[in-house]
## 1
Amino acid sequence: MLASLAVAALLATAPTPAPLPSAVFQFPQQNAAAAHPALVWVVQTLFIVSAVGLIALMSVQTTKNEGLSGSIGGRAESGYRGRLGLDQQLAKLTSVVAIGFIFLAIIYFLVTR
C-alpha cells in the first residue's frame, strides 16, 4: 500500500513533456481530386454508369441450372465453336463491364485519397 502511494506521488510530480507545435508537422495535402475536379466528375459518372449497367446485365442473364450432368457430360452445343449466342454475348459483355467497374473503383480510390 505504501509502495503504491509512493509510485502515485512520483508520477504526480513527474513533469509532463511540452507539446510539439502542430504547425511543424502539417503538410498541405494536395490530391488529384482538388487539382482536377473534372477528372473526379468523369470517373464518378463512369463508375455509376458501369454499376447500373452491371446490375442491368446481371438481371437480364438467365441462370444455368444444368446441375452435375451438365458439368460432366457437357452441353450438346459445346462440341463446336460457332457464333456466340445471346447468352454468351451477354456473359462476355457482363465480364467486360465488371472488369471496367473494378478498374474504375481502383481509379476512384487513387484519385480521391
## 2
Amino acid sequence: MTNHFLLAYGTDKITAMGIALKSNMITALILVGFAFGGQSVGNALGAFLLSVCRQGVLYAAFLFLLSNLFGYHGVLLSQACADLATVVMAVCIIRNLFKK
C-alpha cells in the first residue's frame, strides 16, 4: 500500500472494530439471556428497554455525540460505547430484579 492516508484510516477502523466486537459479544450474551430470562420472570419491560435502547436510542445518541466531539473516530467508537452503556443498563436492571 502506498497511500498512507488509507492505511491510517484502515488501522483505526480495525482497532475500533476489535473493541466493538468484544463489547458486542458481552452485550449479546446479556441481551439474549435477559430477553428470555427477563420475560419469563415477569420483567418484560426491562427486556424491551434493553432491546430498544441498544441499537435505537443509545446508538443514535452516541453516534451524534461522539461524531460531533471526535469526528471520524467518534463514529468508529459509537457502537462500542452503545454496547458498554447497554451492559451498564442491564446490570442495573438485573440488580433491581434480584432485590425484589
